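Record type: monomer structure entry
Structure origin: computed from sequence
Chain ID: A
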Amino acid sequence: MDGCIVVSRREVIYFDKPGPENTDETLKAARVRLEELGIRYMIVASTRGYTAFKALELLEGLRDRVNLIVVTHAGAVEYKAEDLEKLRSSWAKILTCPHTLGWTVGDSFRSRYGGGFTVERIVADALRRFSEGMKVAVEIVLMATDSGLIPPGVDVVSVAGTGSGADTAIVVTSTYSREFFKLKVREVIAMPR
């Protein structure tokens, strides 16, 4: 069928507002797409554990096939001690490291000398035009690839949110932050309007 254009149609979930009340639906939709595409990696941002524990529960039946990576905040311990220990003893991999699109050396200079901007901040602000969760969903894939938890060049389901909980899920092709232009957001599964 030379010259044929293949068109794919699928539903995207758009939430009326961002927030943790969207977590269950976001994670369920992410799991469905993960299974449909045969993706082996799901990465979730989780500041205090709520999203991490929901993802662990939802993906329990897939733990032999799926690598679940939970990304926490660097430099800010926001988990209760017992929750952090519970998470560390789970089957998920935990990543705590500097944020690729913020809290870097460039930010150190920016705060010391005032004003200005960094390339990372420009990219972060451009992604925030979609949603805060979109910025975080892209960022955590870069962080996990840089850390060796995800190989470059594979499709990953990435889940993040606005403040707390999850309201954004995407399919993204992983890459190292130093090769940012190879990163591809392939699908939006869910996001706030």
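Annotation 1: Residues 32-192 form a domain with the Pyruvate Kinase; Chain: A, domain 1 fold (CATH 3.40.1380.20).
Annotation 2: The chain has one domain: 32-192.
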